[in-house]
Description:
Elements: H1 2-9, H2 14-27, E1 31-33, E2 47-51, E3 55-59, E4 67-73, E5 78-85, E6 91-97, E7 110-120, E8 123-130, H3 157-160, H4 174-182, E9 189-198, E10 203-205, E11 211-214, H5 217-232, E12 240-246, H6 263-272, H7 275-283, E13 286-290, E14 293-294, E15 316-320, H8 330-343, E16 347-351, H9 362-366, E17 374-378, E18 380-382, E19 389-392, H10 393-408, E20 411-414, E21 417-420
Zinc ion (ZN) is lined by residues 73, 218-219, 249, 291-292.
Amino acid sequence: MKNFFDFVKKSPTANLAVGEIKRILTEAGYTELSEREYERFSDGAKHFVIRGQSSIIAFRGKGKGGFMISASHADNPALAVKYQENKPYARLSTEVYGGAIYYSWLDRPLSVAGAVSVRTECGAKIMPVDLERAVATVPSVAIHLNRTVNDGIKINPAKDLLPIVGDIESRASLTSAIAEKLGVREEDIISTELYLYNCDEPRLVGLDGSLILSPRLDDLSSVYAALSGFLSAEENGNFVPVLAVFNNEEVGSATAEGAASTFLHDTLLAISGDEGSLRARLHDSLMLSADNAHALHPNHPELSDAEDTPTLGRGVAVKYNANKRYVTGLASDTAVRLIAEKAGVPLQNYRNRADMPGGSTLGAIATTKVPVPTVDIGIPQLAMHSATETVAVRDLEYMAALHRTHFSLGITDTPDGFVLK
Ligand SMILES: [Zn+2]
């Protein structure tokens, strides 16, 4: 569990998560390709490619068969930093990134991470940064000043989610703290993209330690499980394992590097060589779209479907939706059930209550650009989009085992049905 906790700690933002994945892949013998090095994508070696400093796709193998793909996301709801103001205390102005549960950001130790551009002799370079220490907190209003607080609080993000970074005498500046951390001059910082993150430590919880309580479990637990499955899978000559981790899922994926972009398509096309070959190979491909699923809430079972609701510790959830907000279909559902059988991984069903719309996933978005059978799966979790979330240790292990088997197999579409081996 220590490796997973280290991964979460080093991945407060999507660009830093991608940096950490890059480090792990490089240690495992993978080399980075630029999207300019188009002709090298098909050389059969172990490679990864990064777009926008914050989405990454890794692949390997000389195979000319289909792609065994996993897609997950590295971003998470957060408070984006706008600027610093100094009245009445040193304070940061923020706007909310993604669908955060506002109250969960109150009274926590917050740090700042992201990226900045720094002037060079003939231009500028982008540098990732993480202050790695608690520099801010958003104070709640005392109950004595709000006697109805326990009847429910309305939080206005423009007013109530502005963290303080010092006392009335404080003259500390965020830009100078960033400059000092990077060893650059403050006046050389041209532009910034910074987020506040919860710097509470991930930890095991439960009388038997069977739960994980941690920031950013959605979706770093899937990312980590997919990465460890990708690296530990057995080689399967003809098929190409593809690990895709996207930014911007929490804001709809419609960016140059998000799941709605051409990134996955362009990468698979470069590996295939031409459109005709790509289309043929997509027929023998399968994608796992791995994003956490709502587990049965112990205090609010009425919010879940009567039957198809996963519980913590009982295995990976497969998500279904008649309106295709989850894209699991007959073929992809069948395939993942066969893979889970081989992996010895239990599956659970997830369906929204018919009167609740629920969320969407990157699988539904990615398949419009890369038409392959896709199954939406997730580690069951509680408190999704809170600054601190909960999953079961067992389910994280199940997700890693499912990915390992997925990446060790191949799927072939034949006139007599598909063959998985
Ligand atoms: Zn998610």
